[in-house]
């Protein structure tokens, strides 16, 4: 292998090279090192057609030389390289020099494993017939077979989700890969569950038709509303069948004719419902409980939810209401232009489907029907970030039925409870509007 001085302008770079991005900071550091110590390892080139010279390995060193204004560079001239040898030389050098991003690294390892398998065939598990296997790739790179296997899995995940390339570390990539696998498992369970009959598709056991009324639209992702007290009918819901809870219980409010205005009545009702709901939720189900600010500040709701056996997050969700008016004493108190929701889970929480901010703005469009009605966009965001399509959401105090409407629009299933005839009729009407 001959080493000689070659003019930088005579060296061409093929467009199909593995390296697509080179960090500017790394190039600056490399060029400074080459300025001080010179080029320690020559680049590798080969002759192509018409006596043109093409780079085989050393693109970073070549670019650093150009940054330094060099006219020539030491290069090893390789002759008669085939495509396989050319690709292997480039891949192995890139991997050994540790100058790749995490995404480039795992993709390079996956490509190296593939080209060796193409040449030698893939080793069959438990067979002594030879071929190239993950152990061979691991030995070639000087890493464990487990690490090599994980890196190849990450490379395949990257091809399915190119956005993972933006992650800065392999640890972040592994975490994202596990999250995606968990989501796929949930989606698969939904598909398998969809093969059940229409009535059981919502995991509601048979009930006495004279005791409960139901809304069952003609769809494979139905929403059902029951005109009953949640405490009386929650037993009809199958255990471990609900994936998300979103609700706003009747606290100390005048409009609730049944719970009345005694705050202890609303708190006790909420506690009873949360205890009855717990076995109905799948492990990791995410829950959002809108509540009175004074209860949240005093720790009343936090303590209540913990006592029911749930895992409470340190952050809260806030619905920001920018169009709310000041109170009658604007100089004596802060404008109450928000509504908090406690964020908790049944056991160890599932991951959110995507990152969201704690503060979210939303406005009820049109005339506000229910005194505690939430914007549809807020309900949709909570459902979308907590579930995959086909999973089931529950609202034990549904009011105007916004949770059901949002679930229907997002192709989720929902079970709603409303004990007051007036609000049951309103929610039923809103749900029927979605099908029009």
How is the secondary structure organized here?
Blueprint: E1 2-7, E2 11-12, H1 24-37, E3 43-47, E4 53-57, H2 59-67, E5 72-78, H3 83-96, H4 102-120, H5 134-141, H6 145-160, H7 170-193, E6 223-226, H8 230-233, E7 242-247, H9 263-277, E8 281-290, H10 293-297, H11 300-307, E9 311-320, E10 338-345, E11 359-361, H12 376-386, E12 392-395, H13 402-409, E13 413-417, H14 421-434
Helix pairs in contact: 1-2, 3-4, 4-6, 5-6, 12-13, 13-14
Question: If you had to describe this structure to a student in words, what would you say it looks like?
Answer:
With 436 residues, the protein is an alpha/beta fold. It has two domains: 2-174, Conserved hypothetical protein from pyrococcus furiosus pfu- 392566-001, ParB domain, CATH 3.90.1530; 200-434, Rossmann fold, CATH 3.40.50. Helix content is 39%, strand content 17%. The strands form two sheets. It has an eight-stranded mixed beta sheet with strand order 6-13-12-7-8-10-9-11. It has a five-stranded mixed beta sheet with strand order 1-5-3-4-2. Mean pLDDT is 84; it is low at 197-201 and 205-221. This is Putative methyltransferase. Keywords: Coiled coil, Methyltransferase, Transferase. Residues 74-101 form a coiled coil. One of its GO terms (biological process) is methylation. It comes from viral metagenome.
């Amino acid at each position: 292998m001959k080493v000689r001085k070659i003019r930088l302008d005579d060296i061409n770079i093929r467009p199909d090279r593995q390296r697509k991005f080179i960090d500017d900071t790394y190039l600056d550091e490399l060029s400074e090192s080459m300025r001080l110590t010179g080029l320690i390892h020559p680049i590798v080139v080969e002759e192509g057609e018409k006596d043109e010279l093409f780079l085989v390995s050393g693109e970073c060193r070549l670019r650093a030389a150009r940054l330094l204004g060099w006219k020539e560079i030491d290069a090893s001239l390789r002759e008669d390289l085939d495509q396989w040898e050319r690709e292997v030389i480039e891949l192995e050098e890139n991997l050994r020099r540790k100058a790749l991003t995490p995404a480039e690294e795992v993709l390079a390892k996956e490509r190296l494993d593939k080209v060796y398998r193409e040449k030698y065939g893939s080793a069959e598990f438990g067979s002594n017939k030879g071929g190239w296997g993950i152990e061979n790739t691991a030995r070639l790179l000087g890493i464990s077979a487990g690490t090599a296997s994980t890196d190849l899995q990450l490379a395949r995940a990257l091809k399915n989700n190119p956005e993972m390339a933006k992650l800065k570390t392999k640890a972040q990539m592994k975490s994202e890969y596990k999250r995606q696998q968990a989501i796929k498992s949930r989606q698969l369970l939904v598909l398998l569950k969809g093969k059940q009959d229409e009535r059981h598709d919502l995991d509601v056991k048979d009930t006495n038709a004279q005791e409960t009324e139901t809304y069952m639209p003609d769809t494979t992702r139905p929403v059902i509303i029951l005109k009953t007290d949640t405490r009386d009918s929650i037993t009809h819901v199958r255990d471990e069948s609900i994936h998300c809870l979103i609700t706003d219980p009747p606290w100390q409010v005048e409009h609730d004719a049944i719970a009345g205005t005694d705050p202890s009545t609303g708190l006790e009702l909420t506690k009873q419902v949360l205890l009855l709901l717990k076995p109905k939720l799948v492990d990791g189900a995410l829950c959002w409980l809108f509540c009175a600010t004074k209860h949240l500040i005093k720790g009343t709701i936090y303590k209540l939810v913990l006592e029911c056996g749930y895992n409470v997050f340190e952050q809260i969700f806030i619905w920001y209401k920018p169009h709310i008016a000041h109170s009658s004493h604007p100089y004596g108190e802060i404008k109450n232009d928000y509504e908090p929701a406690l964020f908790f889970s049944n056991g160890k929480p599932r991951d959110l489907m995507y990152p969201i901010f704690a503060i979210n703005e939303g406005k009820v469009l049109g005339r506000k029907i229910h005194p505690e009605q939430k914007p549809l966009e807020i309900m949709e965001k909570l459902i979308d970030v907590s579930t995959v399509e086909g999973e089931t959401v529950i609202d034990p105090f549904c009011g105007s039925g916004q949770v059901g409407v949002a679930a229907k629009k997002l192709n989720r299933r929902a079970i709603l409870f409303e004990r007051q005839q007036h609000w049951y009729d309103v929610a039923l009407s809103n749900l029927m509007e979605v099908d029009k």
